[in-house]
Amino acid sequence: MAQDKYTAVWLSHSSISDFLRCPRAYYLKNVYKDPATNHKIKLTNPSLSLGQAVHHVLENLYQLPAADRLKDNLLDKFANSWKKVSGEIGGFTDPDVEHKYRSRGEDMIRRVQNNPGPILNPAVKINMDLPFFWLSEPDNIILCGKIDWLEYLADTDSVHIIDFKTSKGQEDPDSLQLPIYCLLVANCQKRQTTKASYWYLDRSDVPESKPLPDPVESQHRLLEIGKKIKLARSLEHFKCPTGGCSHCQPFEAILRGEAKLVGTDDYRADVYILDKPNSNRSEDSFIH
User: Fold this and answer.
1) Which pLDDT belongs to residue 276?
2) Residue 199 CA to chain centroid, in angstroms?
């Protein structure tokens, strides 16, 4: 089959995670479009908005030369980023709750400013807006994703993958995030990955190193999942394994008209908040 990225199935860490949790949630988040607007639908919440604002500050630093990254006060940059998620568009319906999350974000930014570590070192930039490669050309499956930070390690002419975490929880040891990022780095630039870390900005001054995944095993596992997603899409079969779980039900609430439309994001997705938040979902159940 000839390469055609417009008909290919695109996989990312978030979409794969959606599918593994609940195929119905995958469909509602990644495939479904509101017939009235032809837009995808998105649920926002305080944890998601916190991660978005913090990542926006750090992603902008990534674009700067190392010597310029801390020239300006990062808290001022964060204040500007927070404006984009303040109020209902960020899932905040209570000023006290918003203040709590904003304060957490300020603490994370302050931590980076006081303990910049790899932030002040040279970084490798992948020359793609959205890094991607063909996981399987015959199957028409693409793997894509944005990597938070690639530190350049001059001693070995290699790279260090760093993923910023803004949630309080620990990343699942079986997470596919690092396997995906390692494959993207291997296929989208020339240097080898010799180190990978999570930086838990809520509690740690330095990134936490993780074992590097086996690339052959990672590619095999991801392709298996990709084929299942492709089959589900071709059959239009996206069934919740429990008949209604915590992952798909908030999106079903949008379809039932039980959520409030609060705006449209930069990707033309309609952004909603739940009128009655799910009390069973913890504030940090989203991975950033």
Assistant:
1) 60
2) 14
Q: Are 210 and 194 in contact (CB under 8 A)?
A: no
What's the predicted TM-score (pTM) here? 0.92
CB burial of 125-142 (b: ≥16 within 10 Å; e: otherwise) equals eeeeeebbeebbeeebbb
Structure tokens at 16: 């794969």
The Cα–Cα gap between 156 and 158 comes to 5
Helix 215-235 vs helix 23-30: crossing angle, to nearest 10 = 80
Predicted local confidence at residue 126, as pLDDT: 95
Full 3-state SS string of 164-224: EECCCCCCCCCCCHHHHHHHHHHHHCCCCEEEEEEEECCCCCCCEEECCCCHHHHHHHHHH
What single letter denotes the amino acid at residue 96? D
Instruction: Answer yes or no: are the C-beta atoms of 47 and 136 closer than 8 Å.
Output: no
